[in-house]
Amino acid sequence: xxxxxxxxxxxxxxxxxxxxxxxxxxxxxxxxxxxxxxxxxxxxxxxxxxxxxxxxxxxxxxxxxxxxxxxxxxxxxxxxxxxxxxxxxxxxxxxxxxxxxxxxxxxxxxxxxxxxxxxxxxxxxxxxxxxxxxxxxxxxxxxxxxxxxxxxxxxxxxxxxxxxxxxxxxxxxxxxxxxxxxxxxxxxxxxxxxxxxxxxxxxxxxxxxxxxxxxxxxxxxxxxxxxxxxxxxxxxxxxxxxxxxxxxxxxxxxxxxxxxxxxxxxxxxxxxxxxxxxxxxxxxxxxxxxxxxxxxxxxxxxxxxxxxxxxxxxxxxxxxxxxxxxxxxxxxxxxxxxxxxxxxxxxxxxxxxxxxxxxxxxxxxxxxxxxxxxxxxxxxxxxxxxxxxxxxxxxxxxxxxxxxxxxxxxxxxxxxxxxxxxxxxxxxxxxxxxxxxxxxxxxxxxxxxxxxxxxxxxxxxxxxxxxxxxxxxxxxxxxxxxxxxxxxxxxxxxxxxxx
Length: 499
Description:
Elements: H1 2-20, H2 28-40, H3 60-74, H4 81-91, H5 99-108, H6 113-144, H7 152-169, H8 179-195, H9 208-214, E1 222-227, H10 233-251, E2 258-263, H11 268-280, H12 284-289, H13 294-308, E3 312-315, H14 322-336, E4 338-344, H15 360-378, E5 382-387, H16 408-414, E6 417-422, H17 424-430, H18 441-458, E7 461-469, E8 475-482, E9 487-490
Parallel strand pairs: 1-5, 1-6, 2-3, 2-4, 4-5
Antiparallel strand pairs: 6-7, 7-8, 8-9
Helix pairs in contact: 2-3, 2-5, 2-6, 4-5, 6-7, 7-14, 10-11, 14-15, 15-16, 17-18
């Protein structure tokens, strides 16, 4: 057995020598031909300027020459061997790029302007291949490394991120789109919405009035759902996630969606318990304490098969970075056609950029930009929960405003929709009157009666304030809220006290 291990090790070393002796893919002739074409006719630059960069050239002097050409052309000057010689002489680097004779040699290697784009794409493609080899080598070295802080799953996520970033850089065909194409896409979206019974352009929230105001949760939108503690942010988010997943399961798509729920605060078990409570009208507190009757336990068991069929996926990894979150979301999109992302909550995400912890506003800016990019990239709505600053509590009217968002500038700017949850009932309950020492019974009774009237008027009612909507109007939607079961619902105004 030891002999076999030794021979395998030798074989591995031999293979590695073979790999290291290979020359990275490149094409010097193509690089020279492209640069020559630029010298002959600067218009060739237009065919490659969208995607080709100096670092894409395998020969460093070629990259420097291409960069010099770009600078001169963008200034409206001519780029040819004469002007480039003067440029590099001023930089005192003419010898480093091969001298004036090499510039003339490049001019003699010119291809036609028509072929410049093809040569540029070849150079770009070979650059990507070299980058791919570098990522592969780093993956091998990391896997062989003994760093205990970098687990195998972490290394996989890093590799996925690097591969994705490389793929994104490789999309050089993206650019201007003819307006007729954009118009066709917009018309197609309107047609789909028209054909749907609910007239929604996006994923349903499951709530009648909220869907009517928003038109559903739109693909590529970043939706911020904010509120003070105890207002019901997580409850509304889980309700929306359940409703979207349930609609998808019931209609094989339709207005629903496959949901990815990133729970950075609660465990997956706690989140599942909440969903059970919402759907069975059984207190999650009673479930946790084991205070269930036989009938309630039977109801729980009956609800499980329905919930099991929901296309709802929960990731409760704490302290996720934006990069890791994007990697996992892309994987879920690839494997299960993800249609909605919910994140609870924004301030618990890490930007993953070292040295940013001392500047929280800048870190949150990076996070919100990353989430907006994710929504656009996967073409799905992203709901991110957010905390509000304490300044809300200092006002008489405690309804939230856009300025109340913590680290608000970037959140408000990057979001397509900003919604606040406000429950007057919470504040009314806090202001329950107590009898003063010098107060007689009748005055105290009068104050208590007024408080009870007000409490009855706002009991089980929540407001969802849509303070920003890029696609439509802003307004306030009243909803019912059953705190015991953490469940929101459409408001039945005929049977609601005070309505």
